[in-house]
Structure formats: structure tokens, C-alpha cells
Design brief:
CATH class of the largest domain in chain B: Alpha Beta
Helix content of chain C: 55-70%
Number of helices of chain C: 17
Number of helices of chain B: 22
Shape of chain B: globular
Number of domains of chain B: 3
Largest sheet of chain C: none
Shape of chain C: flat
CATH topology of the largest domain in chain B: D-Maltodextrin-Binding Protein, domain 2
CATH architecture of the largest domain in chain B: 3-Layer(aba) Sandwich
Number of strands of chain B: 15
Number of strands of chain C: 0
Order of helices and strands of chain C: HHHHHHHHHHHHHHHHH
Oligomer: heterotrimer
Strand content of chain B: 5-15%
Strand content of chain C: under 5%
Largest interface: A-C, 95 and 104 residues
Radius of gyration of chain B: 26 Å
Chains: A mainly alpha (about 325), B alpha/beta (about 525), C mainly alpha (about 290)
Structural class of chain B: alpha/beta
Chain lengths: ~325, ~525, ~290
Amino acid sequence: MQQAIAKPEPALRSESRLSRRLIRNKWLYLMILPGLLYFIIFKYVPMYGLIISFKDYKPFDGINGSEWVGFKHFHRLFAESDFGAILRNTLVLFGMNLVFFFPIPIILSLMLNELRISFFRRIFQTLIYLPHFMSWVIIVSISYVMLTMDGGIVNELLTSLGFEKVNFLLSPEWFRPTYIIQVIWREAGWGTIIYLAAIAAIDPQLYEAARMDGAGRLRQIWHITLPAIRSVIVVLLILKIGDVLELGFEHVYLLLNSMNRDVAEIIDTYVYTAGLRQGQFSYSTAVGFFKSIVGLVLVMLANRLAKKMGEEGVY
Amino acid sequence: MNGKVPSIVLSMALVAGALAGCGGNNEKENAAPSGSQSPSGSSGASQTPASEAPKDEKPTEITIMLPLNTSETPPDTIKNEVEKLTNTKLTYQFFPADTYEEKLNASLATGSLPDVTYLKNQSTFINLKGAIRDGQFWEIGPYLNDFPNLSKLKTQILDNTKVDGKLYSLYIGRPLARQGLIYRKDWADKLQLKAPETVADVVAMAKAFTEQDPDGDGKPNTIGLADRNDLVYGAFKTVASWLSTPNNWGEKDGKLLPDFMFPQYIASMDVMKEIRDAKAMNQDFAATSKTDQVALFTSGQAGMYIGAMSDVDTLNKDLVKNVPTAVVDTQALIKGPNGELTTWSIPGYNNVVMFPKGAIKDEAELKKVLAFFDKMMTPEVSNLMFWGIEGTHYTVVDGKAKASEENKELTEREVKGFKDSVIGESATNGSYDGYYTLEARIHAEQFAAENEKIAIADPAAALDSATYTEKGAELQSIITDATYKYIYGKLDAAGFQKEINTWKSRGGDKIIEEINAARTK
Amino acid sequence: MVEDRSFAGRAFGIVNFALLTLIALITVLPFIHVVAGSFTTSAELAVKRFVLIPTDWSLEAYRFIFSTNTIFRSMAVSIGVTLLGTLFSMLISSMMAYGLSRRDLDGRRTLMFLVVFTMLFNGGLIPTFLVVKNLGLIDHYSALVLPIAINAFNLIILKNFFQNIPEGLEESAKIDGCNDFGILFRIVLPLSMPVIATISLFYAVTYWNTYLNAIMYLNESKMWPIQVLLRQIVVLASGLDYSSDLDSAVPPPDQAVKMAVIVVATLPILLVYPFLQKHFAKGAMLGSVKG
């Protein structure tokens, strides 16, 4: 491998500064190489599969052998489904994720960081990260047991307090709150890990200096902790925005029922019913393609915005 | 490091080369890697013409792919016995039922299906029809008569599984009509209700179980019916069939129309609505899973369960633990308002098994594989695969198989994985009927036999429609949603009709057209 | 550390502690239900629905799942794949992340964009299957590792942390005669323990949760990791796969067994975090090197 890199060296030596930089950084390129190969082999090569969005893919005809159909599948998505409603539902859930979920791990990690006794900090950290390991199947079934009108704990409590029973599981109004609360419950603690890592990298001398200046805890958070983890927050935010249309298929699908479909049907669940379950690969791929393009546009916008604000961004 | 990088580069070149030729049109090219992947002799055997190979010489090597319906892959106990009886060397590849379709599609697309491929259920079969028409699987119809046992398979069910009039598959048979009512006999006795005979009796029982404190604890903590989020295998379709709603498709003025366009469908929704409005069933049934439905019954909260009557064993087991005085019974043959007696039936199979051309190279080889299935249809092999080893997993009582109580767990591990793969049914493969001790289950079996006499079959079971294949599930959800909304009172008859119109305009009209065209063909 | 002893500081501490206690309680209750549920019977679960302390104690579910060696074998597979996979992933991810974190690297932005692009676009199951198949990885444990060896998200986070390390440190190392490999392994990685621990955990969890790849790429069920068993039991016992439910001759597994298998399959990965936590507590890492 070393020889392979060294060979072209004489030819390049007399070239521009660029090639000199390339040579100087040869070790860095070598370090990048395995990863790059990974991305090419396992990510970029399979991407040719995306062309089936424009074909009528039949597994046995293969990707090349299937017939071209142009924008037929996109037409079906935009014109022949409840596309407007599905997109709206998807965007609303995404917005809720951004507004209600995204800040919580940040706040939680700040709170954890303020615990002065490390024993408690460790205990709390361990406990709140547990739910991430529960599958949605289990979470949704536990929620059912608590929320059902047929003897569910929450409704029993409401009746004993003299309130009317609430139809949490079937009413369209309760779908979104249920969804976001479950997301927070499962992922908030897990989300703190990354921020805690960022906080752990902060130089403690900064805090001591601040304390000398008489700064209280809230001011320390505001002036030291938050700025120190700002770049992580920005990166996570951009990546989250790119995930705009990834809202956890399994989770939504498990919560979805005939009564709340008007608000609960999102792109992923629609694709599953209309495409994958029926072996309509081309259609599902076309919908996925649309999602990817939306995500790409948003990431590029967010990244540009971040750069304008003096942040590094993700690329 | 030094060794790894070149190998990755090499693999990249390999990928690039492979991608160029991955069109899949060429069967042989695709099939080659599958041979190396499963070192079964099938590809090896194909090189020798069958005529040269003397009979009873080497065991036939067969690789079989099938869905896993149990917690884990069964050990080889049963497989080894089957091999002995059939002179085969079997390789079973079980894959979780949950993601079986993904595996099946990926294998199909990459030409790596094994010699014998079980599908998952009827809808997988429908999705695969394109591949069947394309000639990816052996047509086996012409060979069946060469095999004494395979030729016994029921013609009507075989017809249901034909594609364009040709037979490509063997079926796994199921009783046609096992659905009915499971109810708390002790509650009914206490309230002096007799077994319901009409749909009105069923409704009355649900209401009485809710209102008249059948468990006698003085608290209004019981409901009649426990149902779940499934219009087909839950209560709805069965109730609808008692009201003589057509089974998926019905004939009107010489034309086939979907069930929801018939007035009986509306009447059935009204019945469900009446029960729900009276709070005589679980209010959240549209969001209730089967597990939660079962829990409602086994906890002693609900007193009725409409669905597969064979579920009574499972229901009874936990119920009597919680309520030792509980007695359950089953009931079917429920009459509609005008005294009509009907129920619905499945097309007689729940799954099929197919033979990919990519793995089975020639006729001789196909015949060897079919010979294995022919032997599977003998009583020895079918009993072995369905009930296990006599004396260990079951005993024979009165000519019926009685599952062993003490080796229950062993049976669950060793035998159950193979149960859903036995082709044919007891009438054709000679396997034992079950011997049951629970009174309610004995009734259930009797009712299932009676049900068959009054069952309405789906007239479109063997017909297909391109639009249905493409959009059927998406369109069906329009009707499913409308049905629930009607039952919950969120939609009136006019609103329901509007949803039907949406269904029609989105492609339903085309489905009707295509189904009728297929019928007259 | 100097403690904040002001009244406001203490009040803040108390409120903070109380809130966290409440949060921890809410997060942990459903877990207690699962653990308690695994020690009881399906009959009790049907009545109580939400069990915190079982009345009908039973070890039956555990006896059942431990009565064959499947759970031990699949656990061993999972542990092996998780350990080796995490190691491999961390190695190539941190090398790539470090390369990309260096601002003087030509083409860095393009490469990063290419990485981000893969987070948004993917070719789907079947083209990936073809690649894995053509590489000859079918029925190889490496099929559980290589196709997911780098997670773009993890890579970006690593790169982000690496580039916050003062460049002066690297420069001085260079003067001391270190090449880039040396800088990464002797300077950058030791200085980045919190993020290394974090990303290792992320990779470990991904490998631990590998499910679909195992089914797609491994035909031999003896090679399957624990998640396949876990998911199979959970799905069957939850009645989720009801497509063939009228017709299957096989009743679903017991509810208590479902709970027990969740406990057994989750415990090992839960133990990883407390073990890694010491790297988060050592916040002074960077400072101590400097000082």
C-alpha cells in the first residue's frame, strides 16, 4: 500500500502547491481510504437501485430488465393518493419533534451536569437512558394498557376524580400528544449522552474562573456550558432536519388505527400499506426518493444558514 | 492493513462486474451462486440425467425455505425421522414470519431461492403472481397424476391456487370454516340465557353480560364481547357472514361486486354499532391487539369472543387460572333475522409451496422433489410432521391424536415448527384428527364440520385483477376505515356511501371490471 | 471543585434533584413492569395488565427460555459481533473522522457532503443484498458488520469533536516527529475519551440490535444473534403478525416468556453504559493534559 502511494510521487513533485499538499497529507488520505471504500461499496453502489423509481420493477426481471415508466409512480403519489394530508401529517409530527423533543435532551444533560454528587449523576443517567432499549411494540402495548377506556389506569383515575373518560387511543386529537410523549419518554435520556460527552470535554478551569467572578449556576450554564456545546447542538439540529421525514415508522404504524388515520398516516406508513406490503417496490422507492430530496434540500439550507451564523456546519 | 485494502479493491471490482450482469433475466447466471450458497446436491444431481441414476440409491437432497411461526428454529428430531421415511437429505431454512416477505423478495430478485419455497400466506401468493407468469417457477399440474398421493389433493382448492388456469403450487390445507362464538357458559347459565341461535341472541347476550352482573360481584365491571382491530379474523366478518353478507365478493344482477356494496354489510355494521353503543364490547376495539383482546377474556372481564373457535383451548387455559369457576363453550350456526343460516369460509388453504426453476434444473429433479411431497402425504410422514413421534409427542386414542400433556413443551419446540408446512389436510394426507378433552373444543370441531355445509365461498378467490395487485391494500384501507367509523358513529350511511365512491374512483371500478372480466374468461 | 454554597445555589440544587428523581421514576416504572412481568404468569398479566410486584411468583418463563441452548448461543453471537464490530467500526470511523477533521485537507468538504448524502439517499434492501452477496459475505458473520461498519451520523459527530481539539497540540506533536497516525492514536484519541466512549456505545447498540441483516444475510439459523429470537417472541406474543392467524396451527408464546426474553436480551447491553460512564465523569481530561 505504501508503495502504491509513493510511486506517483516523482511525477507530482514539480506540480502545483495542491499536489504538494496532497503529498504532505498522504497519511490523512490513507486514513480516509477504508471509510471511503465503505461508503462507495455499501452506500453508493447500491444507489443505482434508485432508478427503479422510474421503472416498473419486477424482482425477477432485475433492475436493468424492468420496464421504464417515467414519472408514473410520482404521479400516483402526488395525484392519486391523499398526498396533501399525508405530507401535512408528516410535517406536523416533524415540527413537534423539533419543538418539543429536540431541546429536552439538552436541558436534561444540563440538569444532570448540575448534580454535584457523581453517584447520583451516574444513577440518574443510567435510569433515564434505559427506555431507549425498549422496543416500540412494548412501549405501545404498555401505553394501551394505561390509556384504554376498557379499564385503563389513566381512565380509571379520571373517573374516580369525577371526570369523563377520554378516548386517548382512537381520537385524532390525542394521537399527536401520545406520539410525542412516547418519543420523549423513549429517547430523551438517550439523547443526553452526546451532550454529556460534549460537556465532559469542557475545561473545568473555566468554571472555576467564573465562580471566582461570582457567577451563579445559571450564569455558568449560560456563559460556559451552552457555548461549549453549541457546535454539537448545531450539528445535531442540521442532521435532525435532514431526517425530517423519518419519524419512526414502526412507532407510528403501531399507534395508527382506522379512527386516527386522518392525522396519523405519514409518508412511511402510507408507503408500507400501499407499496411494500403489496410488493410494489417501485412505488415505495419513488416515495423514498421524494423523501430523500426533501431531506437533502432542507439539510443544504440548514447547513448554509449555520455557516452564515459562523458555525462549522456538517460539510 | 496491507492485506485488507487490496482485498477491498478487489471486491469492489467484483461488485462492479456483478452489477453489470445482475439483470436477472438469465436464470442460469443467477442460479449459480445459489448453488454454492446451499451446498445441497440439487445442482449436482442435475448434472446426471435421472434415467441414469438407479432408483433408491442416494437420498435426494432438498433445501426448503419456510416461515418460522414458533419462537425458535426446531431441532432436527423430526427432520431426521422424515429423512428416514422419505429417503431424503433435507436442509430446512426457517426465517421469521414477520419479515419473511423481505427475505423472499430479496431471494427472488437475486436468484437465490432454494429448491422448495414456501410462501407466507395468500397475499404473498398474490404478490408473486407476476413472477409465476414470468416462468420463474415450475408448473406442476401435469405431474400430479404421476403421484398417487398428490393426486388426492382437493381439486377445488387446487383450482383456487391456479394462475391463469395452470397449477404451480401445492397447498397447505386448513379447515374451511372454523369461526364461531366462544362464550362464558357459567355466565349464561347464571343469567338463564341459552346458547345464542340468532344474531339477535348474540347481541342480547352481549348486553346481558354487560348489564346484569354475570360475575355476581355487584360491580359493573364486565362486558359482553371482546374484539380486536381486525375486521376479518375478529368478530366483524363472522357476524356479517351470519347475516349472509357475501364473502369478499357477491353476485348481484349477474355481476360480481365487493361485499361492502351489499345491504347486509351495512346491517352487519349496524349490529356491531348496537353492541358498541350499548357498551357491551370493549370500546377501544379498533385499537386492541389480539393479546389485549385475549387478556380481556382470560381476566374474566369479557364473556364473548368471536373468531376461530379453536382458540378456545388457549382462552380457557388462562381463564380458569384466574376464575376457577369459569366454564366456556363454543357456538356456531347462528341464524340471521330471516332465519337464514350462513357463514364464511376461507379458500381451503393458508399457504402454498412452490418450486423455483432457478434451483430445480430439470424435470427429473422436479420429480424427485415432488416424490418427497408425495411421501409427505402418507399418514406416517404427515402425522410425524403434524403431531410428532407417537408415544413421545402424542398418543392415539379412538383413532385420533391426543397431544401429550407431559411433553407439551417438547412438542412445542420440536414439532410445531413443521406443523404449518404439511401439505393437504387430514382428509387427503391421512393424518389423525385431534383428540380433545375440553368439552368446548369438541363442540368447536363439530361446529366446524357443520359450518362447512353452510359456508359461503369467495367467488373471486381464484380470480385476479392487476389493479387489485397494485393498489388493493391501499384501497381496502379506505373501506376498513369507513367501516370502523360507521361502527363508532362517526360516519352515517350516506358518508359510508361516499367512501365507497372514493374507493371506486381511486381504482375500485377498475377492480370490479377486471374481476368480472376474469370470471367470464 | 469549589462548591456553590449560596442560598440560590442550594435551592437550585434541590429543585434540580427533585425534578430528576421524578423523571427517573417515570422512566423506570415500565421497566419494573417488564421485569416483574417476567417473574409471573400470563394469567396474572391478563388480570393486572400493569404489574409492579407479582403476587403469583413464577420462574417458569426463565426456565422455559433457558431450557434450550438457543439463547446462550445467540447471546454469544451477539456479544462477539458487538465487540468485534464496535472495535472495527471505531477504528475506521475515527481514522476517517480524523482525516476529515483536518482543515488543511483538500476535498474535505466534498467528502463530507458525500457522507451526508448517504444519510439521505439509500438504494434499498435488494441492491444492498446484491452487493453483500457478490462480495461472498452470505452466511458469514462479517455480513453483520461490514454493511453497517460506518454510521454517517457517528462519523460526523466524531469529526466535529476532533476538530475542536486545539491545532497547536497536533503541530507540536508533528514537530516531535509523529506522523498523522501517531497524532491520532497518541494525542487525539486520548484527548477525546468522552466522545470515543459515546460513539462506541452507539456502535455497540447498533450491533446489538442487528436484526434484519441477520435474517437477510445468514441462512443458517444457528448463526443468528439474540435480537432475532427476541423479536420473534415479542412479535408472536404481541399478536402483531395476524396475517395468518386464523390459520396457523401454532398458538403464540406466553406473555411472561415475552417479558423474560426482553430482560435477558437487554441486560448485557444495559451494562455497557455504566461501565463507560467513568469517561464522562473525567471532564478534566483536556485541562489536565494542558496543565
